[in-house]
Amino acid sequence: MNIDPILLSVYARSFKSITDEMSISMQQTTRSPILCEAKDFVTGLYDGAGRMLEQTENLPILAFSLAPVCKHILGYFGDDIHPGDVIFHNDVFSLGNQNNDVAVFKPVFFEGALVAWTAVKGHQADIGGAVAGGYNPNATEVWQEALRIPPVKVYDKGKLRKDVWDLIFANIRFDIVQHDMKAEIGAATIGERRFVELLKKYGLESLEAHKLALFDATRRMMEAEIAKIPNGRYCGEGYVYYDGKNEGSRYTIRVDIDVADRHIKFDYSRTDAQTNGFVNGTYTSSASATILTLLQMVNPDIPHNEGMVQPIEIVIPQGTLLNAAYPKATTFGNHLCPPNADAIQRALAAVMPERVTAGWNNLLCSLTTGIDPRNNEKYVDIGFMGLKGGSGAMRGTDGYDHIGMIDASGGLLDQDYEMFEQQTPHRLIRHELLEDSAGPGEWRGGLGVETIFEIGADDTQLVTFGDGDFEPAFGLFGGADAGLNFIRLRYPDGREVTPRNKDLITGVPKGTIYHQVASGGGGYGDPKLRERGKLAEEVRDGVVSRQAARERYGFDVKDG
Amino acid sequence: MGLKIGIDVGGTFTDFIVKRNFEKPSLHKVLSTPSDPSIAVVQGLAEMAAAQQPRQDLAPFARSIDVIVHGTTVTTNATLTRTGAKSGLITTQGVRDALEMRRGVREQQYNNRYTNVKPLVPRYLRVGVTGRLDGNGRETEPLDLQGVRDAIDLFRREGVQAISICFMNAFANPAHESAAAELVRKELPGAYLTVSTQLLPSIRFYDRVSTTCLNSYVGPKLDHYLERLTGRLKEIGFGGVLLVMQSNGGVMTPSIARGKAALTLLSGPAGGPAAGLFFARAHGQNRCITTDMGGTSFEASMAIDTPALVNDGEIDRLRVALPMLGIHTIGAGGGSIGWIDQGGLLRMGPQSAGADPGPACYGKGGTLPTSTDANLVLGYLNAEFFAGGRMRLETDAARAAIEAHIARPLGMSVEQAAAGMYRVVCNNMAQGVREITIKRGADPREFPFIAAGGAGPLHSCLICIELEIPFQIVPREASVLCAMGMLLSDLRHDFVRTFVARMDNLDWARLGELIDAMSAEGDAQLAEERIAPEGRRHEVKLDCRYLKQYHEVSVAVPREMIARRDARAIADAFHTEHNRLYGYSLEAENPPVEIINVRVNSIGLTEKPQYTEETFAGEDSAHAIKGERNAYVPETTRFANVPVYDGSRLRHGNRLQGPAIIEEVTTSVFVSGSYDCVVDRYGSFALFQRGRDDLVGGTARNANTEAIA
């Protein structure tokens, strides 16, 4: 069949419109804040063979979280796939990315044949396991973390399998999860409907032919980007500090990147072995981290379809930190993205100095829960505003202030301050950009933030998780490192407590001052070369101190 | 009764519509004068006076004008080009960076070269002072007045022209803001001052501080402009009422606009949705999608009963939390440039050739192929009759640009490439329309499609084919739709108070007091605007949500329902609205519902110009044919000779079959192969999918049938 280049553009835009529409539906119909507010979900469209046609991933870490599962499901059910089926999946040992990310897959049939899949995956508020919310720093095995859901039909030929449904939700704490899973099914159904409309308009033959042409076009875009990198092998490392069990432990992610013309291979074979705790990655979350880091180095307009990933090969042997073997615990896996990205940026810095960034601030996050004395009701606050540090600088562009970890890249927003004081008993004292937190450079890193609030309830529970308190975001090409993250508590009796970066603190009294720094990103290039006009403005604005201007940038600001 | 004039000052053109009751409106356009937009206003009025039959001098013409409604882009442009006032902010210590951080969003997540927007107030002019209120408005720390004085000294030294005051939790108690404001007024009487609780006393700190600073930033410019405009109008003898269009689709007097400049950020396009609805109503429809395609952008909005409003709008990535019309803009216009991406796919826009150099066919030095160039090659535009013959288009230049940049790289003919450009730009607009409708839980196929703007009616058929919309309306006023809508707008003032409360445990007396206070404020403003009590309406809305949801839904609640203390009925109204917007409600689960904000919209009804219906002039349209042209028909993907009609000779009841072209002075309509057209009773072109005559309301044919029945 002849390829109509115009129709090709129309298909590309239409696919995007379908996954966007599914995404809007999710945002409007889900109830858990991590879905409707933090938008921790992805919607996608795959062909009959499970190849990605288009995706709308609201957080970049979900860039590659559905396609591998789609292919797995095809193999699992074989010819037992029928119109009206709805399949659930979360199992990290069959290509799931994270236990809490539960996917819905819906096959799309046209004229009797399986022609496509629509899929939605979102982070659910609970997924069973030992601890509500799925975050269990003491876990050593998957069963302590979550209910495993290998591919399972919850609808069979359009009929709800009530027994299966009830079995699943009997193992999940909150009713809200049932509702949010229905929202996922709804969004997948919307995608199915719109895809069938498209088929009716243009016919299957046209779609099949143009789909392949679209993959080719996208693959060529990606190949052209890879071809800009000189052939060779490039190696880099990133570090993970503390596994939640062994004080002082440190693990290394090692990537060997082989570029051969239009092909790029990321090989993690030399990465450290898995841990005995929950600081372990899954293949899918680690591969997503790799892809999102690469995507930030290429033309941001490249469509997200099979063609985008064809020139990319990712090898992560089982049993390593980034791909734990059955039945290891893996809840921390997504948060291995920042050190993985560090390893890639370091590896490629020498050969694509105009595309890499210096190090991004790593995530260090906290969650406070307790009883609000004003109404005696339970509250939960995920400290979004406190966790967002700066991004790394790149040649020609300063880092982005207060953007947050690279796996979200500005997709996760602060709570509003006044809503925070309505919904928690806490009182905000400070949430501001932190002076001198950015790594100096000709282009400076993004600034970090300082957050201080007074805890307003006795017996508050604090969970911390993350990193960035041992090693700062690194500078590149003469640019300097940024500062360190920390979370500190000052109790009313004057006692200071510094939680570890993966910790659970209970019994925090009312009146405790919570103090957190999410520091900046690394700088790029010699700080002495930074444009003086910009520096003068930054000193005037109080984001660079006079002392730092003098000592780190070699710039003496005159008074007045 | 005298004249009513709508004036829409745009970036390139200033549009006028003049309406005398029961007479056909007349349209006029002059080039805008960006350095002082009031010059073009007066020039246009002078030209219109001269065009009267018999010719009039400006002074008597100006005296005969009762009302001028005015839409301005002064504040929009000041924001987009960052040419507003040097501004300072006094805020609570510890949160001065909220304005700059914008909650930490980066809109393009994969683009590391995408930088944050420059804040409207630089950090050194954002001053935090101590003093604190809690979430219930109780003072936990007194305001440091010396800190305020220090800030004022800094502002004086730095030559700050506009000052904003926004404190934490002030929505619950304005006392600290008022005290600080008093000092500022005393110490710096010449500065433009915005106090957050006077502009927007509602919860959400970032929304409030951003809106407050925007108001200060654009305030002095608008103030200055309105002063000049009223001065010039007075000079020429105008003694009527001048009204300014607001972003919410209502109008206000200049004295109110001066203090609340941020209300005009969407002033220009805000007339469109009301005008669209007016034309839809002629066909018995109370809903529509209004679109406007100009030189650089395509604007779309949806109306069901009234134009849709949003409370979380943005301009240039800056939050504006005042209610504004939900108008969605995408970069698709006549000047949108076609290009081939790295993967070999054809793209259109968002880069635009603008007015200068403009499309290649303008012959002003543009060499890149634009949407207008494609329209010319496709035969939709008449090279000799562009802008009513005021400008000649160069077909060779258009062909050369398309050949070099699109046709050759894609290995196709110039005609094929032009058709491709046309199709891609229409597809982009169709997806934009799909988004605004589905986001609000609506199906675009169920709406009449209003096509406006100079370039809109050439593209509307293919957009509608894409969306399966069977019915379109192209008003005669398509090229000045926003100006026309301004004449149909009422005075409107929106008030809000934050009132966090659970529906099952409500302080009804307090709720009633808040509503009464806001209504009284509305009454006072409307009285100032000379609206008699019987012409005033106060609509109450409650922003509700299920307990601990993150977003609220604004629900209209009759005052009587609150007087009756009918929590049940209010909750039901909320469930219904939630279901309409999001496709579900939790009525069955019945979780607690909480109120976050109370709103009152005070409306002062204005006298609307009366439109007469044209008399039925028969179905035959042959008299209006002025020739034929070879034009591209998307349904067959081929060129064909299609009749060209002189729009000015088409009358009510005249019918014609697509494919056809209708030429008007300021716009052209392409009736595609699967659509037919009939002129409706207001003279609009009603385009319907062949065989769907039933969608056309109020035409003589249908009216006659009704009469016979």
List keywords for this structure.
heterodimer; A: 560 residues; alpha+beta; 2 domains; seven-stranded antiparallel beta sheet; five-stranded antiparallel beta sheet; 13 helices; 20 strands; 23% strand; B: 709 residues; Dna Topoisomerase Vi A Subunit, Chain: A, domain 2; Dna Ligase, domain 1; nine-stranded mixed beta sheet; six-stranded mixed beta sheet; 19 helices; 35 strands; 32% helix; 26% strand; globular; disordered C terminus
Helix content of chain B: 25-40%
CATH domain class name of the domain at 82-216 in chain B: Alpha Beta
Cα-atom Rg of chain B, whole angstroms? Answer: 27 Å
Q: How many beta-strand segments of chain B? A: 35
Notes on the protein architecture:
The complex is a heterodimer of chains A (560) and B (709). With 560 residues, chain A is of the alpha+beta class. Chain A has 2 domains: 5-220, no CATH class; 357-560, no CATH class. In chain A, 28% of the residues lie in helices and 23% in strands. Chain A is built from 13 helices and 20 strands. In chain A, the strands form 4 sheets. A 7-stranded antiparallel beta sheet of chain A has the order 2-1-5-4-3-6-7, with helices on both faces. A 5-stranded antiparallel beta sheet of chain A has the order 14-15-20-17-18. In chain A, helix 1 (5-29) runs antiparallel to helix 5, helix 1 (5-29) packs across helix 6 and helix 7 crosses helix 9 (337-348). The longest helix of chain A is centred in the middle third of the chain and has 28 residues, at 175-202. By secondary structure, chain B is an alpha+beta fold. Among the domains of chain B are: 82-216, Dna Topoisomerase Vi A Subunit, Chain: A, domain 2 (3-Layer(aba) Sandwich); 491-604, Dna Ligase, domain 1 (2-Layer Sandwich). Helix content of chain B is 32%, strand content 26%. In chain B, the strands form 9 sheets. In chain B, strands 13, 14, 15, 20, 23, 24, 31, 34 and 35 form a 9-stranded mixed beta sheet that branches. Mean pLDDT of chain B is 91; it is low at 700-709. At the A-B interface, helix 1, helix 6, helix 11 and strand 14 of A face helix 4, helix 8 and helix 13 of B.
